[in-house]
Write a structure and sequence with these properties.
By secondary structure, the chain is mostly helical. It is built from five helices and no strands. The protein has one domain.
Length: 171
């Protein structure tokens, strides 16, 4: 088996090629996706816990509930807002990453087919780094605990429902 051909050589350009630059951008997008997904899910969980705790204090009138519930309500509203912003950032970044992912994949496949037509005897494969970046993006493009393309919408709607619940039951 032949050694993998670097993407810059695969694309017959000197120095870092356009695919290498796009791979670097996709790696940066992947890091933003990972951070924003964890922030969206974590903030949603914290907002839910604070809201439920606040509702319990209101119901039980424990520990000077008015002071505590106000703090918990403000905290849950703020964390739910952060979760919604993180989910929006996640979705915008994921869409940008999808474009990069598709273009990089198409470019690598086009040049591999072109090389195979010219020389049937040698097998050309994309660089390991390129495959790792593409696979990492594919894994990061789903929210934890809320898989699928509609994950950000589910996070947004659940936080809107939580905000509505807090504002209706807040005094």
């Amino acid at each position: 088996m032949a050694a993998p051909v670097p993407s810059s050589e695969l694309l017959a350009v000197s120095g870092p090629g356009p695919v290498d630059a796009a791979l670097a951008r996709l790696a940066a997008v992947t890091r933003v996706l990972q951070v924003s997904s964890m922030l969206a899910v974590s903030a949603s969980g914290v907002a839910l816990v604070w809201s439920l705790l606040g509702l319990r204090l209101v119901r039980d009138q424990v520990l000077g509930a008015s002071r505590w519930t106000y703090s918990l309500d403000v905290g849950s509203v703020l964390t739910a807002g952060i979760a919604m912003l993180a989910a929006i950032l996640y979705e915008i970044t994921r869409q940008r990453g999808d474009v990069l992912f598709d273009e990089i994949s198409d470019e690598l496949q086009w040049h591999m087919r072109k090389r195979k037509v010219q020389s049937e005897a040698v097998e050309y494969r994309p660089q390991l780094d390129a495959r790792i970046v593409l696979r990492s993006f594919a894994h990061a493009s789903e929210l934890p605990f809320v898989p699928g393309r509609h994950g950000p919408a589910i996070v947004l709607l659940s936080n809107v429902a939580l905000l509505t619940l807090v504002l209706v039951y807040a005094r």
